[in-house]
Records
---
Amino acid sequence: MIEVITPGIQTTIQDRGRTKFRAIGVGFSGAMDAFSSAIANHLVMNDEDAAVLEITYGNASFRFHSDTYIALTGADTSATLDAKSIPCWWSFPVKAGQVLRLKMSSEGLRTYLAVAGGFNAPEVMGSKSTDLKTQIGGLSGRPLRKGDELSIPAYKGPQCPSFGLSKSIQPMHKPVNGECVVRFIVGAEWTYLTDDSQQMVVSSPWQVSNETNRLGARLEGVPLSLKAPLELMSHGIVPGCIQLPPSGQPVIQLQDANTCGGYPKIGVVIASDMRLLAQIKPGNTVKFEMCSVEDALEIAKQERKKLSKIFHNIDMMRKTFSHQK
């Protein structure tokens, strides 16, 4: 069992999310940065779909009441285990009674904590993920609170050493100097934008609003304009969809995206770049780069190869350290 000492601003249980229920209004949920979540799970010998903690902004602490094996990935929070510094993108054995503390993240927004065997939580519609809108999944469908007790499996695996990814192979997907470039495919209503607005989408920096959350990233910049008023019936939308409300300020739907909406769709962020949006903070800037469907598919293929290579490196390091014992 793990006791929540300090829950942080928003810490939730997440896995890969729900994929088959959007037709009845239930969104995907799941880890915002699925790439980091998958690596955290592999570091502790879990399936990449196992439930993890998604910790937003850090500033959280946990007391372990049983021995286990943990990993931290995503945003670096200068974590400590019993006041001893531990690096991000590493895994560690933990003893009962030890306390893990995470400071505020300096770069990036979301950190992932995996434990061997994954966090225990009831499956709702095939997933343990917390859906904050409908209040299902995770721990009663809500963020963690001080004093919560999180059930974890008894660890019966090998006595693994501390090890992790070197700086040279750690995924580089945090904003650089507060800015990130995301690629998008033009949407169904792209041609309804004026020529000047189409140019502004790809040439102007967009500041991330303070209203950004797991549902969507609101962007602020020079308002975009349509060639003529456009009324649409509500229709299905997905994470990554870039909508244009009447304000002219784009909104990118994120992991807790609505299942339908009526605003014009000017584009969709490619799946491989959604993890970039998971790590941007309010005040950071986003720049858009146009991408073809063919290129997006190739990028996704290369992304999976990159993840497989990281998994292979982890497996080789674990085997090497195990033989040295």
---
Amino acid sequence: MKRYIGTLAALALAGFMLTGCGDKTVEEGVSLLEEQDYKGAAELFEQAVEKDEEDAEAQRGLGIAKWELEDYEGALSAFESALENGGDKTAEIYNLMGNCCMKLDQAKQALNYYRLGLEEEDASDELKQEMRLNEIAAYEKSGDMESAKSKLKSYIQDYPDDEKAAKEAEFLETR
């Protein structure tokens, strides 16, 4: 998950620079994210959001910080606000949103976010693979074992060397 933070922090900084915003709060928040000072980053992003509730970059940064602080409800809310306010719809954001939902026992909602993430053009092969595994877990958690088996079968065809998936297939056969 840490690999996402660097990428998302870079995206947040790029967005900040492109908007030409004179407020340094978001930029400082991004720096704290990169330093893994998530509490400090969250405080700065919250200040930026208080100044401008429609600041998508501040909302995204707040979501990242809250995810790292294991405040999954707060992270999900911040990510949703970022998207509602014109923030970039990226595979990484959708994956994080799905992961938040999984932590909050909202598997059906997580499935929606994973699907959206898989549809995004910016999804790397590695991220697509991760989201496909996450999707299988969400189907299992929601109790839809048939869909989980079907998705896993397709996954194993595409990634035959994934030992974790092979073990998962064995487990699902018992269900």
---
Amino acid sequence: MINTAIWTPRVLATLRIVTALLFLEHATMKFFQFPAAIPGVPYPLPAIMLIAGAIEVVTSVLIAAGYHTRIAAFIASGEMAAAYFMAHATQGFWPALNMGEPAILFCFIFLYLAFAGAGAWALDNILRPASRQKAAV
């Protein structure tokens, strides 16, 4: 039988790290056109894309490191909700057709992290004693 008490924080940390790194990739596409430019986006970037990219860089690095995870994830979740309604929902109702599935998934994964916290392997765990973390919840 699997001991979920041991594995849950580790799997949560894995979800946090992988999601943050995938989110960072969206910022690198905006700023460095790496691994490719974002299709259909003009360069130089419009101001709203620069702001979105800056939010993505800062929040993804914080979330990946597990530093101030809850607030960074909450901000990233809000950005993805705004991105969905501003860019995808205007293209039609169905997320599979308006290409909004990634924005929805990022939004809800980050919302979950805002409530669940960083899990294992996080700077929050090193810099904030457990008693203070519980008080913050």
